[in-house]
Write a structure and sequence with these properties.
alpha/beta; 46% helix; single chain; 8-stranded mixed sheet; globular; binds D-malate; 12 helices
Length: 270
Amino acid sequence: MSGDSMQDSAFTSTTATVFQDIGSGPAVVLLHGFPFNHSLWQEQAMVLSQRYRVIVPDLPGFGGSSLGESPVTMNQMAQEVVELMDLLEVNDATIGGLSMGGYVVLAFYKLFPDRVRALVLADTRAQGDTEEAKQVRAKQAEEALSEGMIGIVNSMLPKLFTPDSVTKRPEAVKRIREMMMTTKPEGAAGALMGMAIREDQTETLSRINVPTLILVGRDDVITPVVDSESMHAKIPRSQLVVIENAGHVSNVEQADVFNSKLLSFLDEIN
Ligand code: MLT
């Protein structure tokens, strides 16, 4: 936890969940992707917390949070988030997530719609895993447990950024690599198995009746633009923003654009 640029703000730990809670105003909860931790949102937390209360947890098994039971389902993760909101006395919030965080957001909406003021779905999708994807997850989970994070890092890292960013943003690539390497293999394995059995939320989309911002990097090869377009077509009150010169971690790669779109959305709905 120490050493990231969020270290000035307060970290608090419940029995299981490590999180950061900064700023005041309407609450915004941001959920990281796989295999990251809350610091994925450091650029957003810094900017948004000037006007909003930003809550960024480490999902179960990631960062400093306990793993609990494995596999960690998206519903279990959503349950941890609602318990954290209870603890912090946050009745409702804008709930946002990137990639796996987005899977949790959709599970959260289905379970606890009354706790949601608005949604943010970044570089994510509604469909469940194909059989082939499930097999890859099982293999990755085994490898993580036997060999550590290096295999996942080597296969994922080249897909996270655009080739241009790899050349021009070595510090961002290094930061993301380090974040992935510090993830505990048991946590990664638990989430991989949980993602493999996640529900297909396509049917949930047309029932979402809160304002929803969908963001995606133009060059995202993990959750491509077409997945976001299809969520946008189904979610009645949604807006879609395609971010140029960004891949899968669009919030890091094009933080300024991401932040300005997110802030305009929040200012509009709050
Ligand atoms: C993520 O960034 O959270 C993962 O790539 C999601 C996934 O593997 O489906």
